[in-house]
Design goal:
Blueprint lengths: L3 H19 L11 E15 H5 L5 E3 L9 E13 L5 E2 L2 E8 L11 E6 L10 E4 L3 E8 L8 E16 L4 E10 L5 E5 L4 E3 L3 E8 L4 E3 L2 E9 L6 E4 L4 E19 L3 E11 L5 E18 L5 E11 L5 E8 L3 E8 L6 E3 L9 E10 L5 E5 L3 E19 L3 E11 L9 E2 L2 E4 L3 E8 L5 E10 L4 E10 L4 E5 L5 H10 L6 E10 L5 E5 L3 E11 L1 E5 L1 E8 L7 H5 L1 E12 L4 E9 L5 E5 L9 E3 L3 E2 L5 E3 L3 E8 H9 L2 E9 L9 E2 L5 E14 L1
Antiparallel strand pairs: 1-48, 2-3, 3-36, 4-26, 5-26, 6-17, 7-16, 8-15, 9-13, 9-14, 9-17, 10-11, 10-12, 10-15, 17-25, 18-24, 19-22, 19-23, 19-26, 20-21, 20-23, 20-24, 26-35, 27-34, 28-38, 29-37, 30-33, 30-36, 31-32, 31-34, 37-47, 38-46, 39-45, 39-48, 40-41, 40-42, 40-46, 43-44
């Protein structure tokens, strides 16, 4: 948009010049009292368009041979840089793992024994020679207490019973039952053929411990019989007896109550997905925290060791943590509040990962008191990595969005919109060029929005810009409809004076491998190039100027009868100009119109030159017009300091809105002279 006030102010300059130049009676008026007429020249000058436009650095003449001399309004605005900032994030990473004891370790299981002496079976004492008669006896005796547990539930295993016959006669055992002495529940039972044990010999019987509950005191019951010594007298040892021994082998405990030794450690190796669409070679945390919530249903204090192999501390070592988790506790929380400077890193250069490998191991120390633990007891570890903001990432990064902060793009027209109005205006080929510099090592799509504002209209234009990685690129927004957007304001009779650029950026829209930092930015500038190649219909401009009274005395002013101004113009600036004005007092009240109503025309008309189909001036015709100010109006014109000018204008041909070109070669010729009638005393 060119500065209309600069061109139109030329008309006001002309008007003020008329006031200053055409009514300048000399100080040598003193003469006898009679009416005289005095002709005098005012100006004979050629004004080029630069004289009207003044020194405005935003107006530049084209040096393009095809548009040589065409004036452009050029203004550059910086776009505030918009940074990736905190938009480089990872979704929360969380997982839960529950680990059971699997194997329960207890102290070594010794043999437990039940001693049955010969005197418990028949009336014979050891240490003598005697005939052992046939006998059949029932036994029911306790084993020695089990020292290594109070009670145990077996998932599987074997209970081996050894029967040692330290008597001089063979014996037979049948209906053997091993049971808990506390409640009589059966642990093992033998109902097969009698077991024959030769004198001074032994034999074994095995019982399954699968799904058996065992207390620390067991008892044995059953039947023992013998044919005796067949009537012969035989020596009987002093310690003649049956010795029944039990031991537990190859067992797996489901549950146990005992004083526990150190338990074997259990290690679990797992992995967790970072993001289905993101694969990283390396990434640096700017923000983030780790939280562990641990439930320990085991009746043991547990040492929990955890390592996340692909998360590295700032020194490059894998993240490792050890926790002491109290027995039978829930929701024990451990937190690390800041992961700033930590890294996600693959194990090999160039390798991309989308999973974090981690391991954790649980173990416990020996106890000094009895505890009850079972295989179903577990430690559940829930850990999460949350609120992650990355300061740098390299790899296959999912498309990431970030906001473009609004940036003002202004056209400096001063307060012209307060004085200028028009029915319609058209600018030929207006352009906004957007220079963008990206430091992001990914392609970026800018889905922008340009919001234009005038006094009474707000419009929006959506634009899409494809920005390659790490490049400086210029976009001509004409390709995005910017020319039509600017002219849409003009067609509505408005001048857009302010634009705001905002929107959203998408990093790595093509989903390729690259890198990005939170400090990466997209910055640039806009360059308005608005040619003074335009068409205007129904334009009007109104302003107030102050006119001094030329230091005339009241007597001199009162002596003026009339003023006749002759204006000869030759206009080679492609605009039709129609001007009139009003003389007002200090309060703004109308005193007289310029030209007054008794003139042939009530306005000053300056016709546009002839232009060709390309909008260039090709010829002009001189035009002459006179303005008469009679006594009262002439005096008011001199006496009042305020003059309101109203100027109507359009470009030729009228009502066509066809663009014409304003060039440095445009000029307007003024020849002005006056005739003043006054009384000389």
């Amino acid at each position: 948009m060119y500065k209309p006030n600069l061109i139109l102010s030329a008309i006001i300059t002309l008007s003020v010049f008329l006031v200053h130049g055409c009514i300048e009676p000399t100080d040598q008026f003193i003469a006898p009292s009679y009416d005289v007429e005095l002709n005098f020249p005012i100006t004979d000058s050629l004004f080029i368009i630069d004289d009207f436009l003044g020194n405005d650095s935003n107006l530049v003449a084209s040096t393009d041979l095809d548009k040589l001399g065409l004036l452009y309004y050029i203004r550059t605005n910086k776009i505030d840089p918009f940074y990736v900032k905190d938009n480089l994030t990872l979704k929360n990473i969380e997982t839960s793992n529950s680990t059971s004891l699997e194997a329960i370790t207890i102290k070594n299981t010794p043999y437990i024994k039940a001693y049955i002496g010969i005197s418990d079976l028949l009336p014979v004492s050891g240490g003598s020679d005697a005939i052992v008669p046939p006998f059949s006896s029932t036994i029911n005796t306790n084993f020695k207490s089990i020292d290594n547990f109070v009670s145990a539930d077996f998932e599987s295993g074997n209970m081996e019973m050894n029967i040692n016959n330290n008597m001089p006669v063979p014996i037979e055992l049948s209906n053997i039952i091993i049971k808990n002495s506390t409640d009589g529940s059966i642990v093992g039972e033998y109902t097969g053929s009698p077991i024959v044990v030769a004198p001074y010999d032994s034999t074994n019987i095995n019982f399954s411990l699968a799904n058996k509950h065992v207390n620390d005191i067991l008892e044995i019951e059953g039947s023992v019989s013998s044919e005796g010594s067949n009537g012969e007298t035989i020596p009987i040892p002093e310690d003649a007896h049956l010795l029944v021994t039990l031991r537990f082998t190859d067992f797996i405990l489901d549950k146990v109550t005992t004083i526990l030794p150190e338990q074997d450690g259990i290690q679990v190796d797992r992995s967790i997905v970072i993001n289905d669409s993101t694969k990283l070679e390396t990434a640096i945390f700017d923000e983030g925290n780790i939280s562990f919530v641990i439930d320990n249903s085991i009746d043991l204090d547990v040492n929990l060791w955890l390592q996340i192999q692909n998360i590295k501390l700032p020194d490059g070592s894998p993240y490792t943590e050890t926790f002491l988790v109290k027995r039978s506790t829930n929701n024990q929380v451990f937190q690390i509040g800041s992961m700033k400077g930590w890294k996600v890193e693959s194990n090999n250069p160039g390798e991309l990962i989308n999973e974090l490998k981690y391991s954790f191991r649980i173990s416990s120390d020996a106890t000094n008191d009895e505890r009850t633990i079972s295989q179903t007891d577990s430690v559940n570890v829930h850990f999460s990595i949350s609120n992650v903001v990355l300061s740098y990432a390299k790899g296959l990064i999912k498309p990431t969005s970030f906001d473009i902060s609004p940036s003002e793009l202004n056209i400096d027209l001063g307060n012209i919109e307060d004085k200028l109005s028009f029915d319609s205006l058209f600018i030929n080929d207006p352009s906004i060029k957007l220079k963008i510099n990206s430091s992001i090592n990914f392609d970026v799509i800018l889905n922008g929005k340009i919001t234009g504002y005038s006094d009474n209209i707000t419009k929006e234009l959506l634009i899409t810009l494809d920005l390659p990685a790490m490049v400086q690129k210029e976009f001509d927004l004409k390709d995005q409809g910017m020319s039509e957007f600017i002219n849409s304001f003009m067609k509505s009779g408005s001048i857009p004076t302010r634009f705001v650029f905002s929107g959203e950026g998408i990093i790595n829209p093509n989903y390729v491998i690259g890198s990005v930092s939170k400090f990466d930015s997209v910055a640039g500038s806009t360059n308005f190039e608005l040619p003074l190649e335009l068409g205007i219909a129904g334009g009007s401009f109104k302003d107030t100027v102050f006119v001094d009274n030329l230091n005339l005395t009241e007597e001199q002013i009162e002596s003026i009868h009339s003023i006749l101004l002759t204006i000869v113009t030759d206009n080679k600036i492609p605009m039709n100009l129609i001007m009139n004005g009003s003389v007002v007092d200090i309060n703004g009240d109308l005193l007289t119109k310029i030209p007054p109503s008794y003139n042939t025309s009530e306005y000053v008309q300056i016709d546009a030159p002839e232009v060709n189909s390309d909008g260039d001036v090709i010829s002009s015709t001189p035009y002459t017009q006179q303005i008469e100010l009679r006594s009262a109006e002439a005096i008011e014109f001199i006496r009042s300091p305020h003059l309101i000018f109203s100027i109507m204008f359009d470009t030729p041909p009228p009502n066509s809105i066809k663009a014409v070109k304003f060039k440095t070669s445009n000029n307007i010729y003024f020849k002005i002279y006056g005739k003043i009638n006054y009384r000389v005393n």
